[in-house]
Amino acid sequence: MEPNIGNGAVDTTFDGQGNAYTVTYSESKVHKWSLDSGEILLSTDTQWNPKYVAIPGAKATSPDPRYLLVSNDHSYKDGKYRFPEIGIWENENLQLFTLLGTEDREAYPGPAGLEFVRDYPLQTGAWEMTFVPTEQIEERAIVRYREPDESFRIENPRVVRTGPHEVDVYMRVVRSHFEPNKIVLKEGDTVTFHIENIDTSEDITHGFQPNFYDISGGVNPGGIREFTMTLDKPGLHWFYCHWFCSALHPEFRARMIVLPEDASPDQVDIMYSNEELNSGDTTRDKIVG
Q: CB of 131 within 8 A of CB of 55?
């Protein structure tokens, strides 16, 4: 039976106990109603223009009908904003309601029925919303990590000159570091970067993007990718991970020093005066050629 829940119904969720919860955008309310009779059982106000509503596990076979989330399109009401303004954005409003009745108060202390508990600032408008009990996430989080495949690894990050102008760079990346992160090469070299992502979290992709060269790509966890370029621009070149991965992401970079083709041994000595910029079996003599 179709319920009479007013104007602007935009989203509905279910508690697995024969009830539905619908938010109405125009009147800014959430309604609990019976799937059997269509009767409105409870109604309450939301902040302003709710868009989405969710009960934990409502999209699975066993919903957890203790709480309800409502995502509001606005947090402005009665002439003021609910949350402080941050930058150019106005926060939206995510509200938490309890669905616990009086018989549940001993096990779960809190208000009875469909009652507001607290709200949270939401900086971006969501197109969809899912509410999942934390105990389900903890069980699944274990499988998000894996042991590295030792048979397919770059064991010794290094720079290897294989010819007068041919160089292979074997590099590893992990949050938030390139290894090696400083290399010295020569103008005219054709260099191939072999890059392995050694992160064990399956959702941490890292990027490789040197400036002044038309190269940009990502390396998935456990994977190795190759990038080849010919160095035609002497000077200091930075390359970056452009795939956001952690709080240290702004520091995730490395430098490539490209010496002029006619670089003298003295120039190379200056580059090496403070620290060894290369690792592995690339030596000063191999750079000079």
A: yes
Higher pLDDT, 276 or 150: 150
Is there a contact between 46 and 53 (Cβ–Cβ < 8 Å)? Answer: no
Tell me the pLDDT tens digit for each residue of 210-229: 887 888 888 888 888 899 99
For the chain, first and last CA: distance in Å?
A: 84
DSSP strands (E only) in 66-130: 67-72, 76-77, 80-81, 92-98, 115-122
Q: How many whole angstroms separate alpha carbon 289 and alpha carbon 277?
A: 17
The pLDDT score that the predictor gives to residue 52 is 84
Task: For 142, list phi and psi in degrees, rounded to 5.
Answer: -60, -40
Q: What is the pLDDT of residues 178-188, one digit of tens each?
A: 999 989 898 99
DSSP string, 166-230: EEEEEEEEETTEEES-EEEEETT-EEEEEEEE---BTT--EEEEETTSS--EEE-TT-EEEEEEE
Note the pTM of the prediction, 2 decimals.
0.46
- DSSP H/E element including 266: helix 265-271
Separation of CA 214 from chain center: 25
Alpha-carbon torsion angle 70, 73, 76, 77, nearest 10? -60
Considering the chain, what is the average pLDDT of its residues?
A: 76
